Amino acid sequence: QVQLVESGGGSVQAGGSLRLSCVASGYTGSRYCMGWFRQAPGKEREGVAAILNEGSTTYAAPVKGRFTISKDNAKNILYLQMDSLKPEDTAMYYCAIGEGWFLGLRVADFGYWGQGTQVTVSS
C-alpha cells in the first residue's frame, strides 16, 4: 500500500520560509515522477514543482526562483524549500506520485496522493 505523509507546514509571515517534507513508502515502481501540488480554498488544485529520480525538475511560474524541490532517493523523502513566501502561497500542500517517466505538473497524471499539510502566509 502506497503511503505519502507530508509535514512541515505552518504559519509564517510574508517573506519567510518553510520546508515541507513528504515520506513515501510502499511504492515499488522504478519509473515515476514526484511532485508538490497545492489547493487554496475555492480554487482548483495546481501543480507547484516536480522532480525525477535523476534530478530533473520543473516549476510552476508563480514559484519559480522562490521554491526548490529536492529528493533523498535513499530515504524516499521529497522536500519543498519555500522561500520569500507570499500571502498568495497560502494553501494546503500535497505531495504525489505519478507513474511513468515524465516530468509534469498536471494533476490528472498523478495517481497517489498524501493527506496534505497546511501553509498559511500572513501579510
Structural commentary:
- With 123 residues, this protein is an all-beta fold.
- The protein is built from no helices and 11 strands.
- The strands form 2 sheets. Strands 2, 4, 5, 6, 9, 10 and 11 form a 7-stranded mixed beta sheet that branches. The chain has a 4-stranded antiparallel beta sheet with strand order 1-3-8-7, with no helix packed on it.
- Strand 7 and strand 8 form a beta hairpin.
- The radius of gyration is 13 Å and the shape is globular.
- The termini are far apart.
- The mean pLDDT is 96.
Short key terms for the protein model shown above:
mainly beta, 7-stranded mixed sheet, single chain, 52% strand, 123 residues
- How many extended strands? 11
Number of helices: 0
- Let me know the largest β-sheet: 7 strands, mixed
Mean pLDDT: 96
Helices and strands, with pairings:
Blueprint: E1 3-7, E2 10-13, E3 18-25, E4 32-39, E5 46-52, E6 57-59, E7 67-72, E8 77-82, E9 91-99, E10 112-113, E11 117-122
What would a concise description of this structure say?
With 123 residues, the protein is an all-beta fold. The chain has strands at residues 3-7, 10-13, 18-25, 32-39, 46-52, 57-59, 67-72, 77-82, 91-99, 112-113, 117-122.
